[in-house]
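RECORD TYPE: inverse folding
INPUT: structure tokens
STRUCTURE:
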């Protein structure tokens, strides 16, 4: 679940889920799958801690996992110390998160003018962003 959708759900408030939320939810699924890859020959204590933090699902825990992956993406030394699969995935996951944050800002800017209007422009904007996110993902 995306961070904003989770906050809304936990706070009991209404929330319009966007294509950005869907892609962020998929991001967290990819992080979970990377950390829980059973084909990895070994995992570090840090990776085991991240797995537990993701299971906790609190916002602070998820932020710590994302920040740890970001550090891995920029450090060859750290990537040598983690599981091989995470070493390969960390740079891609970092790029994906950066794209999501950039697109999130664009979504907010484009959603505001159509939010109170008729359904068709909203639907078209949803489709536009869904395609835009998929087309802009150039992870390698």
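DESIGNED SEQUENCE:
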């Amino acid at each position: 679940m995306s961070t904003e959708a989770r906050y809304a759900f936990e706070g009991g408030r209404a929330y319009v889920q966007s294509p950005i939320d869907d892609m962020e939810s998929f991001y967290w699924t990819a992080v979970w799958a990377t950390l829980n890859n059973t084909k990895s020959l070994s995992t570090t204590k840090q990776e085991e801690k991240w797995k537990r933090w993701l299971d906790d699902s609190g916002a602070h825990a998820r932020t710590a996992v994302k920040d740890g992956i970001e550090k891995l993406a920029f450090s060859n030394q750290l990537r040598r110390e983690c599981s091989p699969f995470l070493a390969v995935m960390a740079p891609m996951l970092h790029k994906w998160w950066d794209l999501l944050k950039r697109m999130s800002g664009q979504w907010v800017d484009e959603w505001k003018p159509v939010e109170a209007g008729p359904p068709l422009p909203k639907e078209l904007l949803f489709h536009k962003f869904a395609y835009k996110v998929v087309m802009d993902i150039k992870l390698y």
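NOTES: Residues 4 and 21 are 8 Å apart (CA to CA).
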